[in-house]
Amino acid sequence: MDPEAFLDLANQVTKLKMFPYFDIAHSVLCALHVREDLGAGAQAFSRKHPMSCWLSTMLVVFAGGMLSNGLLGEPILAPLKNTQQLLVATAVWYVVFYTPFDIGYKISKFLPVKLVFATMKEIYRCKKVYDGVTHAAKLYPNAYIIMILIGTLKGNGAGFTKLFERLIRGVWTPTAMEFMQPSFPTKACIVASTIFVLDQKTDLISAPHSLVYFGIVIFFVYFKLSSLLLGIHDPFVPFENLFCALFLGGIWDSLAKVLGRGAVKEDKADSKKKD
């Protein structure tokens, strides 16, 4: 592709308007997440506890903004002030849970449709990460960690509210903590937030902002589609294992086990000789 045409495409991606189409895609996948998390009893639960079902879905949809606002000392419920977005999310929730013959859910789960929604959601995720980093940079210009944290929460807030979202539905899973077992979206948002911080606050990245932004969009979309089509869920795992082995005691723990087994074998051999 011609470099100028590629740059023009990148500029167009950075200027995409998220409402309403990207918001719809985001809401659909959030509603699907709640329904699939409910399991086989999702339909019965939605009939018996519609308020709980709606609240948990809205929490997933607006989790990033609510968490970020809470940490930045802003009104937690501010993301709900946009009535149009709230109505769109509610309409999507209704379609996924309550359409006759479950048509809405079946169409949303249809693979080609889901691929389109997933692609749009990842573009939406990149925008949220960038907005989070930019907003935090205005409040705390030199606090890089805060920028990365807010960008990550904006991009994957639903992962960090999973415990409370399930609690609304009457399920207590204290081990479902994103800090204990971070998912790939969380790790990807950390990487994206770090790149945006380096792009805004340092001279380490000399490429135009639109190209950096477009590169992160491609990164998000590529691995999401790889997850859906090829089953590649977390490409960071090999690097994490290597890092843990080198710097977090993995090698020394393994060495200690080997030496410990050797010492045990020697003790057993000595005891046999004495017998």
From TrEMBL:
<keyword id="KW-0812">Transmembrane</keyword>
<dbReference type="GO" id="GO:0012505">
    <property type="term" value="C:endomembrane system"/>
</dbReference>
<feature type="transmembrane region" description="Helical">
    <location>
        <begin position="211"/>
        <end position="230"/>
    </location>
</feature>
<keyword id="KW-0407">Ion channel</keyword>
<feature type="transmembrane region" description="Helical">
    <location>
        <begin position="84"/>
        <end position="101"/>
    </location>
</feature>
<dbReference type="InterPro" id="IPR007866">
    <property type="entry name" value="TRIC_channel"/>
</dbReference>
<protein>
    <recommendedName>
        <fullName>Trimeric intracellular cation channel type B</fullName>
    </recommendedName>
</protein>
<dbReference type="GO" id="GO:0016020">
    <property type="term" value="C:membrane"/>
</dbReference>
<feature type="transmembrane region" description="Helical">
    <location>
        <begin position="53"/>
        <end position="72"/>
    </location>
</feature>
<dbReference type="Pfam" id="PF05197">
    <property type="entry name" value="TRIC"/>
</dbReference>
<keyword id="KW-1133">Transmembrane helix</keyword>
<dbReference type="GO" id="GO:0042802">
    <property type="term" value="F:identical protein binding"/>
</dbReference>
<keyword id="KW-0630">Potassium</keyword>
<keyword id="KW-0472">Membrane</keyword>
<keyword id="KW-0631">Potassium channel</keyword>
<keyword id="KW-0813">Transport</keyword>
<feature type="transmembrane region" description="Helical">
    <location>
        <begin position="236"/>
        <end position="255"/>
    </location>
</feature>
<keyword id="KW-0406">Ion transport</keyword>
<keyword id="KW-0633">Potassium transport</keyword>
<comment type="similarity">
    <text>Belongs to the TMEM38 family.</text>
</comment>
<dbReference type="GO" id="GO:0005267">
    <property type="term" value="F:potassium channel activity"/>
</dbReference>
